[in-house]
């Protein structure tokens, strides 16, 4: 009789003994059960491992996405700040602006505030509008989150406070005597100055010191 390897059982003495059909079925069943007993927990382990890896990959993707969003938001704020600062610097380079600014801060107090801004002489009124609405425009950009508040205020803190202190009596009276102006005339400038007051006076100097302490790129 021909004996296949899977159909034979090696006896203790080394001779091959044919297996009956029933014995073959029992041997194959036992072998399959033993292999299955090993494969089932191994398969479960692999599935758990794959699930864990997928979870870790998902968490890394979420963290990276959040980091990129924060970085992009910061870059966008800086990108928005640059044109506004360029506009401001353009005005500050203007001799006309400085003439208006100096007038508001040093000569406006000589005028009577009783009739508000509208009651000022034409030249004085022009100086007030030129300076106040420039700073109010910057305050509005800060309020809307278009530009970085600390970057703007650390640079302009003193000037915003100085301008508001000079024009406040005229603005308050303007709100009272000029119905066309309304109660919110230059309200954003007032709020901008209030925010500037919150910022420490040394904030600009501190910002420069931080910059000077950075290693050269």
Automatic annotation (TrEMBL):
Its keywords, alphabetically, are: Membrane, Transmembrane, Transmembrane helix
**Pfam families tied to this protein:** DUF4760
> Membrane as a keyword?
yes
Membrane spanning stretches = 49-70
The record's annotation in InterPro entries points to: DUF4760
Please give the name of this protein.
Uncharacterized protein
Q: Which organism is it from?
A: Actinoplanes sichuanensis
């Amino acid at each position: 009789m021909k004996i296949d390897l899977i159909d034979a059982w090696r006896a203790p003495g080394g001779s091959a003994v044919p297996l009956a059909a029933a014995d073959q079925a029992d041997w194959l069943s036992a072998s399959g059960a033993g292999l299955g007993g090993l494969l089932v927990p191994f398969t479960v382990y692999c599935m758990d491992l794959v699930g864990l890896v997928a979870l870790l990959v998902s968490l890394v993707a979420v963290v990276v996405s959040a980091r990129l969003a924060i970085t992009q938001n910061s870059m966008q704020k800086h990108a928005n700040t640059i044109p506004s600062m360029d506009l401001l610097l353009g005005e500050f380079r203007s001799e006309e602006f400085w003439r208006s600014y100096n007038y508001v801060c040093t000569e406006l107090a000589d005028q009577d505030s009783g009739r508000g801004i509208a009651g000022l002489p034409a030249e004085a009124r022009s100086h007030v509008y030129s300076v106040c609405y420039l700073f109010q425009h910057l305050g509005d950009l800060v309020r809307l989150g278009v530009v970085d508040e600390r970057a703007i205020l650390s640079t302009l803190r003193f000037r915003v406070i100085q301008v508001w202190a000079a024009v406040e009596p005229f603005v308050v009276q303007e709100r009272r005597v000029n119905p066309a102006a309304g109660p919110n005339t230059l309200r954003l400038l007032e709020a901008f100055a209030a925010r500037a007051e919150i910022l420490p006076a040394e904030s600009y100097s501190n910002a420069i010191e931080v910059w000077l302490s950075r290693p050269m790129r």
